[in-house]
Structure formats: structure tokens, C-alpha cells
Write a structure and sequence with these properties.
alpha/beta, Leucine Aminopeptidase, subunit E, domain 1, 2 domains, two-stranded parallel sheet, about 45% helix, about 15% strand, globular
């Protein structure tokens, strides 16, 4: 099959799973087909799927991955004076590192809203249907939702990274209190502990909780930098951490916080959160 034929095959297979989709026709435009395919993947409940489907899906997603381009995390320049820290602006799903961090919800099944712009949706869409199936099995065995501040590790399937670290950040409904700050710091520590336990040498963090969960960007970045720096220093972890940002505003915030003077000020070994 050509790439276009793969896309149509995947759409037809997913449409055929549910009689409610009987009246949906496949559009002729490529982007509309891509949007329909992603939407069908987003709303699909975790249930068995054929090997033939997964084989075609994997080939399709890997082609799309390579077309977007893969960024070698090892080639990204470290911060001056600290070879363990990197600041990078870009699409975290294109990073070739040992693990990327996904800002998940407590159900750990990914975002079910079609074409939603959250990182959870994008990570699941580009990893493939296997990720939701893996997560569903993992959460079924656990028997309860994932607590805020904790994390789980899964394969990354069709992403360039090896693993995904899924963490549940605090949701902000009003003023940020000490409890929310501690929970956010726990997200970073939980991910780093899992990374060390699974022999990861490189981890890329997204800006946890600052999007749909409404944690103030400046405060969240400060907690991220302090928590990661403290962990690397106190645990003597041999791991390279990439602070991944997408927005220009977040880039400016992290540039300021990661300046040498800021890192020196944090070098007391004290933990605020």
C-alpha cells in the first residue's frame, strides 16, 4: 500500500468498528483524512485490534514521524557550566531520547477529545493505539486512578523515544497553595526516580500542568528547575535532563531561571517543595 492507501485503510477499519459511524464518508483531501484518522484514534476505547491494523498503523505513523523529522537529544547543547541540563524549544514528540514526559490525567488513558491540542492527545495520537491499550491494562492491574504527583512508565511505541513517563500534575482552580506546589515538585521527582530505575540516561520534560491544568507558568518553571537541580545534585544521578518548551514565553522564563546566577542561588541543597 502507498502511504495514502494506508491512511484510507486505517480510517475504514476504525469506521467499521462502530455502527454509529455508518454515515461518515471518507473525505478526499489529505489533511481532512489525517484529521479524521486522528479523531477516530482519539475517541476509540481501549479494546482489542487486529495485528494487520497495527502493522499498517505502525508503518503509517513511522513514516509521518520521519517526515516531521527526529531531533537527536544527545546533540542538543548543554547549558554553560552544567552538562546535565538542556533547554530546548520544539515538539517533544520528535525528540530521540530515552524518555519523554507526558502530562497525563489521573485515568492515564490519554485525551479522548478529538484533535485536542493538549500534549496528552498528541503523544497518544503519534504513539499509536497500542499506548492506550497498554495504559488500560496497566491501570486495570493497579485498580485505581493515578494519584496527583505520581508517574508511570510505558513504551513509546511509534515515537522516537524509548519510553514515556506519564505524570499527573495538579489542577489549579484558584490561588496556588503549598499543596499544589508540592504536588508539582513530586511530578518531577517521580519521573526522575522512574527514569533512574529504568536506566534512562536522558529525559525530556514538558511544562507539566501549565496548559490545560492552569498552573502559572513562572511558578511552575521555578519549581521544575529547583526540583530537577536538587534531584541531580543530591541523588548524584547520571542523567541528562532536557527542559522542553513550546511557547516563546516559556522559553524566556526558563532562560532567565536557568541563568548561572539563578543556578548558583539554588545550589544550597535546600528543598523548598
Amino acid at each position: 500500500m502507498t502511504h495514502g492507501q494506508q491512511r484510507v485503510y486505517l480510517i475504514r477499519e476504525l469506521l467499521g468498528e462502530d455502527p454509529r459511524y455508518a454515515g461518515i464518508s471518507i473525505p478526499s483531501q489529505e489533511q481532512e483524512q489525517k484529521d479524521l484518522l486522528r479523531s477516530l484514534m482519539n475517541v476509540r476505547l481501549p479494546k482489542p485490534i487486529s495485528r494487520d491494523f497495527l502493522q499498517v498503523q505502525d508503518e503509517f505513523l513511522q513514516y509521518e514521524r520521519d517526515k516531521r523529522g527526529v531531533t537527536d537529544g544527545a546533540a542538543l547543547p548543554s547549558l554553560p557550566g552544567n552538562p546535565q541540563l538542556v533547554l530546548w524549544q520544539g515538539d517533544i514528540t520528535t525528540l530521540q531520547v530515552d524518555a519523554i514526559v507526558n502530562a497525563a490525567n489521573s485515568g492515564m488513558l490519554g485525551c479522548f477529545h478529538p484533535l485536542h491540542g493538549c500534549i496528552d492527545n498528541i503523544v497518544h495520537s503519534r504513539s499509536g493505539i497500542q499506548l492506550r491499550l497498554f495504559c488500560a491494562d496497566m491501570m486495570h492491574k493497579q485498580g485505581h486512578e493515578e494519584p496527583t504527583g505520581q508517574a508511570k512508565i510505558t513504551p513509546a511505541f511509534n515515537l522516537p523515544s524509548q519510553y514515556i513517563l506519564h505524570t499527573v500534575g495538579p489542577i489549579i482552580y484558584g490561588p496556588v497553595g503549598e499543596q499544589e506546589c508540592k504536588a508539582l515538585a513530586s511530578c518531577y521527582r517521580s519521573c526522575l526516580k522512574l527514569a533512574v530505575e529504568n536506566n534512562c540516561r536522558s529525559v525530556a520534560f514538558c511544562c507539566i500542568s501549565t496548559g490545560e491544568f492552569h498552573f502559572p507558568q513562572e511558578q511552575a518553571a521555578q519549581i521544575a528547575v529547583e526540583t530537577v537541580s536538587s534531584f541531580l545534585r543530591t541523588q548524584q544521578a547520571d542523567i541528562r535532563v532536557i527542559f522542553n518548551v513550546f511557547k516563546d514565553e516559556d522559553l524566556r522564563i526558563y532562560q532567565r531561571l536557568l541563568a548561572v546566577s539563578a543556578l548558583d542561588a539554588m545550589g544550597t541543597g535546600e528543598r523548598r517543595w
